[in-house]
Amino acid sequence: MAEIAVIGAGYVGLTTAACFSHLGHDVICADIDEARIAQLVRGEVPIVEAGLEALVREGLEGGRLRFVVGAANAAPSAEFAYLCVPTPQGDDGAADLAYIEAAAREIGPVLPSEAVVVNKSTVPVGSTRVVERVLGRDDVVVVSNPEFLREGSAVHDFLNPDRIVIGSDDQSAAVRVASLYIGVTAPIIVTDPPSAETIKYASNAFLAAKVSFVNALAAVCDAVGADVKDVVLGMGYDTRIGHEFLKPGPGFGGSCLPKDTRALVHIADSAGYSFDLLRGVITVNEDQFHRVAAKVREMAGGSLEGVRVAVWGLTFKARTDDTRESPALRIVSLLAEQGAEVQAYDPAVKGPIGGVVPANDPYSVCDGAQVLAVLTEWDDFRWLDFDKVAGLMETPRVVDARNLLDRPALERRGFRYVGIGR
Ligand code: NAD
Ligand code: UGA
């Protein structure tokens, strides 16, 4: 079993730390956020992530997981140091490596000889070399090991990955990193660092392309009177296409797909290739926010001026509390810009965000509303009392941007219903 330092205690870092300690390793996880570390030391997990708190507590109680403030405090005895810090979008669309470089600068002087530094953050091609330069250590190897977990199922995805990708020119370092995943069954792809870094961006860009494809297809279905759910079902049985990631909705969001698609466009541009296909994916996604706002406007009779709109769902998808680059927030701001009075509810969002102060329950936002917009696919929404909702609303009309609700059941209760592509 190995001694592992994990730098960054966010969605990826905390999951990595908790799961590696669950696999039997000794893990020290560091963050610069003192309040976050204080919470974690008490066994309190500051994010909504199924199964994570149980693993954190298991690690703390078993003495295999510790939390410290500051990367330098985690690194002195580390055989492996995982970088799990943010790589936000910079001004020109490229990924900003400032956090990666800062973390590398902090651990460089204190890492033991023969340590392996592992980039788990999503980083542009060439970043492995950047980290090597910043570390300035001949006796430390840098390896790329991108992460493919999804928020909301992070623990499950980490422990049951579709694949493990390791990018290194040093075969023995690659084997050492692979051995950390003892107990995890998955194909392991060992390649060079630029290929590993490209696999990560290409995977997210391809997923984004699937979502934009189905959203564009939904627009066609709307226009020709086809039902996109049946169309996608019929397509998905072709094993070359598959059923996954083809749900139409309000557009893709979150902390990664939007920034990573833009970063790959930038990487391609810098390398002399104009990735127009991916530009199209981004444009279709931007259009989708406007298409959903237009559906709400049409449902309200052509104008949103002074119209009360109830919104269910603010997170970028269900089963997370993350609102970063949430399509729901984009749509809320488009509605507000057009004069709508928006009242919103989300089971995981309690504080003010994006100009709205979320209500405490889904019914109160419907009081006097002329249109209800469902923007996040929380399962809870399907099981609400729609007789009560109809009674509360001034006019029972729903724009279901996730095709979540039972349309016939709503229509039986007198609702006018519009979905996406059906
Ligand atoms: P996050 O914002 O949730 O967490 C990052 C953490 O790093 C924060 O808590 C921050 O305080 C901390 N941090 C920043 N600088 C630090 C330093 N010098 N020392 C110690 N801690 C520091 O970010 P995230 O969602 O976990 O993403 C991290 C990286 O992983 C990004 O590159 C992202 O693209 C990638 N990624 C994210 C996901 C996801 O689902 N969120 C999945 C795969 C890959
Ligand atoms: C995504 C990838 O799925 C992960 O593999 C990757 O590790 C991660 O990004 C990352 O690099 O951070 P995540 O951001 O958690 O994971 O969210 P997804 O489940 O991929 O959803 C992204 C967006 O697409 C959401 O807004 C979601 O609602 C939307 N989506 C997804 C659809 O509209 N339709 C679909 O069929 C699937």
Task: Walk me through the structure.
The chain is globular. It has helices spanning 11-22, 34-41, 52-62, 98-107, 127-135, 154-159, 171-179, 193-224, 228-236, 257-270, 276-299, 327-337, 386-392, 407-412, and strands at residues 3-7, 26-31, 65-69, 80-83, 116-119, 141-144, 164-167, 188-191, 308-312, 341-345, 371-374, 397-400, 416-418. Helix content is 40%, strand content 14%. Helix 8 packs across helix 10 (257-270). The model has no long low-confidence stretch (mean pLDDT 97). Strand 4, helix 4 and strand 5 (116-119) form a beta-alpha-beta unit. The N and C termini lie far apart (53 Å). The protein has 422 residues and is α/β, with parallel strands linked by helices. It has 14 helices and 13 strands. It binds nicotinamide-adenine-dinucleotide (NAD) and uridine-5'-diphosphate-glucuronic acid. Uridine-5'-diphosphate-glucuronic acid is lined by residues 122, 147-151, 204, 207, 211, 245-247, 249, 252-254, 256-257, 316-317, 327.
Task: Write a concise synopsis of the structure shown.
By secondary structure, this protein is α/β, with parallel strands linked by helices. 40% of the residues lie in helices and 14% in strands. Strands 3-2-1-4-5-6 form a six-stranded parallel β-sheet, with helices on both faces. Strands 10-9-11-12-13 form a five-stranded parallel β-sheet.
Give a quick set of tags describing it:
about 425 residues, alpha/beta, 6-stranded parallel sheet, 14 helices, 13 strands, binds nicotinamide-adenine-dinucleotide, binds uridine-5'-diphosphate-glucuronic acid
